[in-house]
Amino acid sequence: MTHAHLAALKGGLIVSCQAYPAEPMRHPETMTQIAEAAVRGGAVGIRAQGLDDIRLIHERVALPQIGLWKDGDDDVFITPTLEHALAVIAAGAEIVAIDGTRRARPDGLSLAETIDRIHEQTTALVMADVGSVADGIAAYAAGADCVGTTLCGYTGERTKTDGPDLEVLRILAAVLPIPVIAEGRVHTPTQASACIDSGAFAVVVGTAITHPTTITTWFAESVAR
């Protein structure tokens, strides 16, 4: 049976409300306002980064939230440790996104140990951000409640595709009994639709909705002569 928080996301759009460090929009109030605007546009869930952002969005947005904490300069930086994951959950995320690859984690715990302890200590669900089919299968075996294609093209296992990695998405959706969420380089409504057609349980869109610097660059470059 699919958990209620995941069931609420099925077939819908999750909007990732994040800003890079030192950007003008890097502020919990701003990210919360973007999340509130996304709700009005039809989002079924929010993905957010950082404890202050997660906390404020949890207070003001009545949708399931996928929370994460980007920290460190190592390859594994998306909620890299159990301590990070528990803090994200305590801030209000119903689903915690963690690095779900097969790479070594900074605290020395395995992915399975991390997920087991999250499940033992909290009621939160775990979304494993993966970079390949092998990652996704391993994350399911480790106990993840859902997987996302977030890291495809960023771990060295897959060539970075122009748009979402539909091949990994199709294979994982076909072989895993848990939800597979499309995330990463979904820049157009057509691409989002293609993700659903490829078996995605839900689709995460961030940059194309919530990152005006990048969107402005796309348009500025298109009109430059």
Taken in chain order, the helices and strands follow as HEHEHEHEHEHEHEHEHH
Largest sheet: 8 strands, parallel, barrel
What is the domain total for the residues?
1
Termini separation (Å)? Answer: 55 Å
The level-1 CATH class: Alpha Beta
Strand content: 15-25%
What form results from the Cα inertia axes? globular
Are there runs of 5+ residues with pLDDT below 50, and where? none
Strand order of the largest sheet: 1-2-3-4-5-6-7-8
Mean pLDDT: 97
CATH architecture: Alpha-Beta Barrel
Radius of gyration: 16 Å
What is the helical fraction, as a range of percent? Answer: 40-55%
CATH topology: TIM Barrel
Strand segment tally: 8
Q: How large is the count of helical segments? A: 10
Structure in words:
One of its GO terms (cellular component) is cytosol. GO terms for molecular function: N-acylglucosamine-6-phosphate 2-epimerase activity. It catalyses: an N-acyl-D-glucosamine 6-phosphate = an N-acyl-D-mannosamine 6-phosphate. With 225 residues, the chain is α/β, with parallel strands linked by helices. It has helices at residues 4-7, 28-41, 51-60, 82-91, 111-121, 133-141, 166-175, 189-197, 207-210, 212-223, and strands at 13-17, 45-49, 65-68, 95-99, 125-129, 146-148, 180-182, 202-205. It is globular. It has a single domain, classed as Alpha-Beta Barrel (TIM Barrel), CATH 3.20.20. Strands 1-2-3-4-5-6-7-8 form an 8-stranded parallel barrel, surrounded by 7 helices. Helix 8 (189-197) links the parallel strand 7 and strand 8 (202-205). Helix 2 (28-41) packs across helix 3. It has 10 helices and 8 strands. Helix content is 41%, strand content 15%.
